[in-house]
Amino acid sequence: MDKKVCVFTIHPAKDLRVLNRQCRSLQRNGWKVTLIAIANKRLDANAIIGPYEDAGIKVIGVEKWNTFWGRVKTLFRITNLALKEDADIYHFHDPDLLLPALFLKIRVRKPFIYDTHEHFNILFSYSVPDLFPLRQIVGGVVSLSETLLGSLFRNISVVYKEHIARFERLGCRVVFTPNYASIVDFVPTPVSEEEWEQRRKKVLFIGSLGPRRGSLLLPEIAKKVKEKCPDVEFLVTRRFHNQEQEKAMLEKLNSMGDDRIITFIPNVGGKDLPAVVRKAGIALSVDQPTRIGLTSQPTKTFEYMSQAVPIVASDLPHAREHIRDVGCGIVVKPDDPRQFAEAIIRLIENPDLAREMGEKGQKAFIEKYNWGIVEKRLLDFYDTIADHRER
Predict the structure, then answer these.
(1) What is the model's pLDDT at position 147?
(2) Residues 279, 307: one domain?
(3) Do both 144 and 202 map to the same domain?
(4) How many domains in the chain?
(5) CA dihedral 277, 278, 284, 289 (to 10 degrees)
(6) Residue 175: CATH number of its domain
(7) 163 and 231 inside one domain
């Protein structure tokens, strides 16, 4: 008899972590999987509202909300759909769903897993004005609420190590599932001499283009590099979360007198992203030392590593551990476009060094930083929950 799991979230239905990693890992190992997630027609014309099958996984697309009350309605619609699935285990993401999921847990009396994969106390605090102590109060309330409500589900999946003790102190069963890229999606194949020659003068940035992420440094970095190496191409995925972010970037480019200094490419996800990463000879990570930048672990780091792309990154804790110590790139002062440019030029002028760094990153990805390593931990966690329920 199939073991059945229902995963529900307000992430997009094609989210790499949720669909391609967690759901497919469970499906490959004998679980019958239903995913309930957001199908955003505004961002993806091909998004499907309602149930459909994605390579053996039942997906139910729920339309994105437009208003606050629409959001509330969507949250309860998602949990109502989850109720109808009658799963053996429920696995949900996002603190927005904590209260609806708690009502669902009381109703169905089945095991639940709460998946916390961000520093939500920091993210939510950014939604209010930076007036002391307003952000500190909001962050504290969010952290306390998430911890206490999350602990009621007893089973917790965390992306960051510092969250382990936070829930274990309250008697929860915790599994560490860092957001590494999957070898199934990001196949780490060797790079030929011919391919490397085509790639080595292309600099790539994937990720969000908000000012807090350092994206306004990109035009300045590109300009400084092109002054020395005019044939270098800068590729940036067009990933703006709102019109204000896009306006800020375009104004920055216009102020520099050349909006062609950067080439925007479509923001793709899912299985289309590895092909984009593989076009690059150098990759950028320009996160700033904000509260979120100092604590985050960008998934793009491991996606770059998988395709043997050397990385130039801001000198932040995650970059020191995963880039500098591995030897797969160069870390520089976060707010200094000149240091970024000098590091890029160094790699362009020393292609053997760039290849060596890329290969070190790919080796580390294969041996330490891929989802396959996390998958076994997740499956063991599920088996423990299932066995405990049977007993």
Answers:
(1) 95
(2) yes
(3) no
(4) 2
(5) 50
(6) 3.40.50.2000
(7) no
pLDDT band at 114 (very low <50, low <70, confident <90, very high): very high
Q: Which residues have a Cβ under 8 Å from the Cβ of 183 and sit 6 or more positions away? A: 306, 365, 366, 370, 371, 372
Q: How far apart are CA 377 and CA 368, in angstroms?
A: 13
CB atoms within 10 A of CB 349: 11
- pTM, two decimals, is 0.89
Confidence band, pLDDT 50/70/90 cuts, at residue 325: very high
Q: What is the pLDDT of residues 157-191, one digit of tens each?
A: 999 998 999 999 999 999 999 999 999 899 999 99
Strand order in the sheet with 233-237: 263-265, 233-237, 202-205, 282-285, 311-314, 329-332
Query: Is residue 259 classed as helix, strand or coil in its secondary structure?
Result: coil
Structural domain boundaries enclosing 134: 3-180+370-390
Residue 109 is encoded by which pair of tokens?
A: 């009396």
Residues 159 and 231 in one domain: no
Q: What DSSP character marks residue 65?
A: P
User: How far lies 381's CA from each of 155, 180, 242, 309, 374, in Å?
Assistant: 9, 18, 37, 33, 11
Is 234 part of a structural domain of the chain? yes
How remote is the C-alpha of 139 from its chain's centroid?
Answer: 21
H or E stretch covering 19? none
The reply to whether 55 and 170 lie within a common domain is yes
Same domain, 158 and 59: yes
